[in-house]
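Protocol step 4 of 6: structure prediction from sequence.
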Amino acid sequence: MSTDRPSAEQEIEALRAERQQLLRTLEFHERDRQLLAFEIHDGIAQDMTASLMFLDSAAEGATFAKEGDKEACERGLRLLRDSVAETRRLIQGLIPVVLDERGLVISLENLVARFRNDHGLEIDLTAKVSFVHLTPAVEMVVLRIVQEALNNVWRHSQALKAEVRVTQTDHELRVGIQDWGVGFDPAQVKKTRYGLAGMRERARLFGGTTEIDSFPGQGTRIIVTLPLADAILHV
């Protein structure tokens, strides 16, 4: 008896092809982020930094004709300094994460070390997993989620310490990031806020979920859960 229903082998092959396409999309996305970071660094950031140096030098010996001109000049310089700092933070967030050939945990350790060295954050990383490698696409998603969460700690929380916890169950990978900073009211944050929306979307693409718990003055906790079915590489 004939049937139009796909066989199990066809369904598996279709899922495999879908994952390969998703991996290629993620790789293109990482490449585009890197190119954008280079463009900002070599173009806008360099021009803004040079402009700030010239204006700082000119302001030191300037004589202001009208009352209030000096204060206006100082305000303009402060805004330009803030813009330079914000541009550098933007570049930092665009820098691609690197998958270490020794496995996901080593990749996470490298990412955490970069935040410690670059931003002075005290980050406690704990990983309780039995695998070494996940598929590259899943590893990339985990690293990007942790990177974005730590970027939010650095940029918004005013916290000096954060924790990253990665745990494995029989069927799921649980990634938790917590800080004890100023926190926020999730109801007041737009769902389109790119950092949080990006974390949710990355998890959703892989069948996962994202929970964000935060209260003003009590810090923030982000928990991402991803299914491990077909994600573990046995190498």
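Step 5 (inspection) to follow. The first strand starts at residue 122 and ends at 128.
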